[in-house]
Specification:
Blueprint lengths: L1 H14 L6 E5 L3 E5 L8 E6 L3 E6 L5 E6 L2 E6 L3 E5 L22 H23 L4 H23 L6 E5 L5 E6 L4 E6 L4 E10 L2 E5 L4 E8 L2 E4 L5 E5 L1
Antiparallel strand pairs: 1-4, 1-7, 2-3, 4-5, 5-6, 8-9, 8-15, 9-10, 10-11, 11-12, 12-13, 13-14, 14-15
Helix pairs in contact: 2-3
């Protein structure tokens, strides 16, 4: 039984090098390993002299808690000599992904205002010089409202993309799952991975940002996105 225990201890001593724990060396010829930190508790094994062990708890005044293959045990700290301290894990600062700031363009808004003013003047002159022709006034009003509406949708209204768009050809990026107005989940088949990144919409262009590339998609319509380069192909909404 003791030989088997010694074998487990040796195998464990080789493996604990991968763990961040204080290492001690046994000074006694045959150090007893007890079930608890009570000197009268059950002996569950022995450690040979010069054996290296990982210590888990050093708060007790007389006994240290150690890790063994079949569990944990306690040994007298008098017969242990510290040989290495646990290395503190290296903490890497989180890298916040920032979306490049772009200058806000008001050209579309200005164009919409100009169109709305022109339509307003047309409607004004129709009302003034149509001699109360209700058909002409009604028809002109409908045309003016339609033109203003389409200009608003095209040039002013903020575009929103939602849902999953899947590529119809083999390319690096297979699909884009737009989770919110600025977050998208991207499936990369080259690395067989999925990552979430930020995106912005500039006109009809979607710009995504990861740690290495800027991903561009053109909005053809609400059901189709067109990509080039890494995103080459058509992405259809599923």
């Amino acid at each position: 039984m003791n030989k088997i225990f010694f074998l487990f201890i040796i195998l464990f001593a080789l493996s604990i090098q991968l763990h961040a724990q204080d290492m001690y060396k046994v000074k006694a010829d045959k150090l007893r390993v007890r079930e608890t930190n009570d000197p009268k508790s059950k002996i569950i094994g022995f450690l040979p002299q010069n054996e290296n062990v990982a210590v888990l708890d050093t708060t007790n005044a007389k006994f240290y808690k150690i890790k063994v293959t079949n569990g944990q045990g306690w040994v007298s700290k008098e017969f242990l000599e510290k040989i290495a301290s646990a290395k503190k894990p290296e903490v890497k600062a989180a890298v916040a992904l920032e979306i490049p700031k772009t200058a806000k363009s008001y050209s579309d808004l200005i164009f919409f205002i100009v169109v709305a003013l022109i339509m307003g003047f047309i409607l004004y002159f129709i009302f003034k010089y149509s001699k109360q022709n209700k058909i002409l006034i009604g028809l002109t009003t409908i045309i003016v409202l339609i033109v203003i509406y389409f200009c608003f949708v095209t040039f002013v209204k903020e575009k929103v993309i939602t849902g999953v768009y899947v590529n119809d050809v083999e390319a690096q990026y297979k699909s884009f799952d737009f989770k919110s107005k600025d977050s998208v989940e991207v499936k990369d088949i080259y690395t067989d991975s999925t990552f979430t990144t930020k995106y912005t919409i500039d006109g009809d262009m979607i710009k995504m940002y990861d740690q290495q590339n800027t991903i561009l998609l053109l909005i053809r319509n609400e059901n189709t996105l067109v990509g080039e380069g890494f995103t080459k192909g058509n992405f259809s909404k599923k």
